[in-house]
Amino acid sequence: MTTTSTDIPTTGGTSHKELAAWVEEVAALTTPDSIVWCDGSDEEWDRLTQKLVDAGTFVKLDRKPNSFWATSDPADVARVEDRTFICTKDAEGAGPTNHWMAPDEMKGIMSDLYRGCMKGRTMYVIPFVMGHLESDTPMYGVELTDSEYVVCSMRIMARIGSKILEKMEETDAPYVKCLHSVGAPLAEGQQDVAWPCSETKYISHFPEERMIWSFGSGYGGNALLGKKCYALRIASAMAHDEGWLAEHMLILKLTSPEGKVHFIAAAFPSACGKTNLAMIEPTIPGWKAEMVGDDIAWMRFRNGKLYAVNPENGLFGVAPGTGYPTNQNAMHAIEKGNSIFTNVARTLDGDVWWEGMTDEAPDELIDWRGDTWTPESENKAAHPNSRFCTPITQCPVTAPEFDDPNGVPISAILFGGRRKTTIPLVTEARDWNHGTFIGSTVSSETTAAAAGAVGVVRRDPMAMLPFIGYNAGDYLQHWVNLGREHADAMPKVFLVNWFRRDEDGGFAWPGFGENSRVLKWVVERLEGTGEGVETPIGTVPAEGALDVDGLDMEPGQLEQATKFDVEEWKAEIPLIEEWFAQFGDKLPQELRDELDGLKKRLDA
Ligand SMILES: Nc1nc2c(ncn2[C@@H]2O[C@H](COP(=O)(O)OP(=O)(O)OP(=O)(O)O)[C@@H](O)[C@H]2O)c(=O)[nH]1
Ligand SMILES: O=C([O-])CC(=O)C(=O)O
Ligand SMILES: [Mn+2]
């Protein structure tokens, strides 16, 4: 144990001078009782998980090895988009889709909040890298946090610890500064609560400085700053400056019965099926699917192709709806343990349960609020945004390429959302600009992944609406420009919708493993063998081109899932126009032209 010039007892330290100075500066402001530099070791995990058990934050699960159950404050259960800010010098930098505040003003407000906010707590220094340490461009970050829950979760979600710090020290490497506090200082002798947080929340990004300040929440994307804050909001701004893409996409490896391999990326909004598709168990014979990533793709050009890496090291998956029939691979991953479960229900014998895990609920549970729950209870046992946090390498279908620092060449991009109507099962874009148009107009019914109303249709460009760290008009232009500069490298683009409803309100398409039938058609289109018909919105599978062998569907269901309806699409046009209007001069001319083209084709 050493002490810094701030006289705070400290375990560990660094020769990286700029980092040492930043840590001291934050400690002087937040006044923690002690500072711990995280080494990422098993010993550290054991010590911190035990501390969380002692504090009542974690309950150790008897039925899952090395795994823990946590329930959050009921007011801290999801990303808080209305408290999320992009702090660029001028408002135009944040654009029409983000909340903006001037950097100095935000720093003033938050410095006041941070002053003394870690009193009674330990400040942890977490050196981490997003993507691989052996990458040509290692993408470092350091998170300072006063939450042991965050340290343990970051250890699963990212590559953290001494090895990272040593590599950073070699070159005094630049890194993204990630400051996090739950915002709940403890007075002398004050008893802590199981889930400390604050009513006041700010999730602030300073893209020009590559910096993140988060205050008041301990949950998910609000607090595990490597994920949405860095790997999407800050990285998207970096990618814009440097000519690459940071996207909200899963990465899937598909092997056909002939042994041909294709890598596919897919962008769906939060809680719209990325993790499930990434772990798909194909129902059609001979096809193999493996996961490279389930949430985020960083894509760079090399050798004339677009290569994608998954910057993460863990899964932060939506629990409800995950079960052996729908996603056995996720179930096998969590069986291996080493996981944190948040806001799911706990069984009396020390296991976890959530809606959709089994057809029949156990007779008695402890629900996510900590209350006794029975099948007669009116409330859900698990919160709709409850999550499992699990090492990605535990998933039986993680592809060996997950470990390739340079990633995998992408040959198709899928966009999708949750739409009861209008959007057919699968449509192929005409070309890159049309694909960008399709991405820019993705629409989806809102989910429990973010605080606020659920089930409201909103536009969610490239499934990035809450994650674009700069002006969304510039972001769309970036997509168009890359297509122009790297025309031959660009993947084919498709639009999918697993969520269309039938007349009875049920899902028209069975989804999950059956989505492999759509993937098969996509691959056939890549290889030039799949048959399609042109429609005003793009190419859809020709009659009989979608493999539905052995698929047990009610009469009319397939037609309902796949149909293109001119009238439904005409009704979309004013919504797209309204959506585009906010971008003003920033709307790329190419997308204006695409909209005009679509209108003409619909009217023809
Ligand atoms: N009907 C239907 N539901 C699906 C399908 N795929 C996923 N779901 C359900 O949609 C919900 C969210 O799925 P996930 O795969 O966790 O979504 P995600 O995009 O990874 O969500 P985030 O991790 O929040 O970004 C779960 O309840 C799934 O069971 C599908 O093909 N059909
Ligand atoms: O960031 C989170 O809290 C969880 C997540 O993956 C999402 O909302 O897309
Ligand atoms: Mn997911």
Describe, in plain words, how this protein is organized in 3D.
Residues 22-240 form the Phosphoenolpyruvate carboxykinase GTP-utilising N-terminal domain. Its cofactor is Mn(2+). Its main location: cytoplasm. It comes from Mobilicoccus pelagius NBRC 104925. It is a single chain. With 604 residues, this protein is α/β, with parallel strands linked by helices. It folds into three domains: 2-55 and 82-241, Phosphoenolpyruvate Carboxykinase, domain 1 (3-Layer(aba) Sandwich), CATH 3.40.449.10; 245-314 and 398-603, Alpha-Beta Complex (Phosphoenolpyruvate Carboxykinase, domain 3); 315-391, Phosphoenolpyruvate Carboxykinase, domain 2 (Beta Complex). It has 16 helices and 33 strands. Strands 1, 2, 3, 6, 7, 8, 9, 10, 11, 12 and 13 form an eleven-stranded mixed sheet that branches. Strands 14, 15, 16, 17, 18, 19, 27, 28 and 31 form a nine-stranded mixed sheet that branches. Helix 11 (432-440) packs antiparallel against helix 12 (472-485). It starts with a strand and ends with a helix. Bound molecules: guanosine-5'-triphosphate, oxaloacetate ion (OAA) and manganese (II) ion (MN). The site of oxaloacetate ion has 9 residues, from helix 7 and helix 8.
